[in-house]
Amino acid sequence: MSSPRLGFEVQAAIADAEGTPRARACRLTLPGSRGNAHEILTPMFMPVGTAGTVKAMTTAELRSIGAQIILGNTYHLYLRPGHERVERLGELHKFMNWDGPILTDSGGFQVFSLAGLNKIDDEGVTFQSHIDGSSHRFTPELSMEIQRALASDIVMAFDECPPYPATPEQVRAAMKRTVKWAERGLEVPMKPHQTRFGIIQGGLYEELRAQSAREITALPFDGFAIGGLSIGETPELMQKMAYYTAPLLPQDKPRYLMGVGRPEDLVEGVRAGIDLFDCVMPTRNARNGQLFTSRGKVNIKNSKYADDPAPLDPECPCEACTQYSRAYLRHLFIAGEVLSARLNTLHNLTYYIRLMGQMRSAILENRFDDWTKAFYTKLRT
Predict the structure, then answer these.
(1) Is residue 225 in a domain?
(2) Which residue among 279, 297, 316 closes a domain?
(3) 184-223 pLDDT, tens per residue?
(4) Backbone phi, then psi, for 21, in 5-degree steps?
(5) d(CA 314, CA 293)
(6) Residue 107's pLDDT band (boundaries 50, 70, 90)?
């Protein structure tokens, strides 16, 4: 059962051909740090606010487009401005003026992504700061202490993400270390409102994913995440492993697919039975001029949009689509105007969050298969 701190209800689910419950609409309730309970309706995409900000967006704008929960990063906030400073200033919610729930990554992914700057052993990770080259030591215990200071609502276990490609031996070693680190992290007390998610590893090896799921779900976590995907493998392999792993996780607890991804990956993740997603793609790609629409991707820098008076996506209610033309959005990008990043980011996040809402409605109304077919048909037109 879920922790007393966390409420979780599966409101509707659609079974696959074998009768396994898959795509689902859920209600997740978190107590909040000041008694202000938070409700998250899934499936839901979490905008990434790595350093305490979703790039180019204010928290008021995030609320206006329906963002229910955002993500912060333990590693980055530890380095700058420092978790102790954030705690002194009222914890992360007050510091960044966000009154909704926050999930903090543990810093484990940075162990993977900054592999050239670190050294991993059974006790933890020694790494050089990407900011100034200073040396730091991260352990499962320190990761928990940092997240406790930040006072996030969902605390992620410290894990080791193996590289891709990797041998079975490498992946098995990382998986075992992740279990040990999870056990150690659970010994560190959290603030009363904080809940904890464990992370399933195992690379692209089904037997290792199954073993990881058995060992991590045996621990007293409030929810579970699938990690170690979308790190270089093909989308097809990523989707296959997510589909394999999701039903290995408890039905009565939330499921989170970390670092994914493209709109198609979100659709396939929901089809697999995942509830929560995060990825830097909508914000990073927005700053690079790639926009997601109901008819597929638009590279707004393309010269063919220079004289295009049409809206970016006529189905989107965001300011970029209702107030400006493709030609103007291209002009802003080519001119290097700050407004380009703001409008592009506003649009991409609006698209992602509306996409999740559409899937939720389709699941609740038992028409998810038809909705999925229509989604792919529109992308091909």
Answers:
(1) yes
(2) 279
(3) 999 999 999 999 999 999 999 999 999 999 999 999 999 9
(4) -60, 130
(5) 9
(6) confident
**Sequence-distant (≥ 6) Cβ neighbours of residue 200 within 8 angstroms:** 209, 212, 213, 216, 224, 225, 226, 227, 245, 248, 249
Q: Alpha-carbon distance 283 to 70, whole Å?
A: 13
Q: Is 0.90 topped by the overall pTM?
A: yes
CB 144 within 8 A of CB 158: yes
Are 272 and 299 in the same domain? no
How far, in Å, CA of 130 to CA of 127, rounded?
9
Amino acid at 9: E
In the chain, helix, strand, coil percent, each to 5? 45, 20, 35
Catalytic residues: 105, 278
Residue 234 CB coordination number (10 Å): 8
Residue 113's pLDDT band (cuts 50, 70, 90): confident
In this structure, the number of other CB atoms found within 10 A of the CB of residue 381 comes to: 7
Instruction: Please state, as a whole number, how many other Cβ atoms lie within 10 Å of the Cβ of residue 16.
Output: 14
CB contact at 8 A, 68 and 44: yes
Give residue 33's pLDDT.
83
Domain co-membership, 203 together with 301: no
Q: How confident is the model over 14-71, as pLDDT tens digits? A: 999 999 999 999 999 999 987 789 999 999 999 999 999 999 999 999 999 999 999 9
Q: Is residue 318 domain-shared with residue 272, that is, in the same domain?
A: no
Q: What is the DSSP letter of 96?
A: H
Helices 338-364 and 368-380 pack at an angle, to 10 degrees, of: 140
